[in-house]
Amino acid sequence: CTGYRPIVDAAVRMFDAPPPKAPLDIATLARTLATLQRTDTFHYEHAGQQFDAPRTVEALARIKAAQPATRILAGSTDIGLWVTKQMHDLGDIVYVGQIEALQHIETSADWIGIGAGVTVERAYAELAKHYPELTEMWQRFASLPIRNAGTLGGNIANGSPIGDSMPGLIALGARVVLRGNEVERELPLEDLYLAYQKKDMAEHEFVVGLKVPTRTGRRANLQFRTYKISKRFDSDISAVCAAFSFIADGETVREPRIAFGGMAATPKRATHAEAVLNDAVWHEATAQAAMLALGNDYAPLSDMRATDAYRLETAKNTLYRFWLETRPHDPLPKEALDVRAVEAAGA
Question: What Å distances lie between residue 133 and 25, 118, 136, 154, 249, CA to CA?
Answer without folding.
Answer: 49, 20, 7, 23, 20
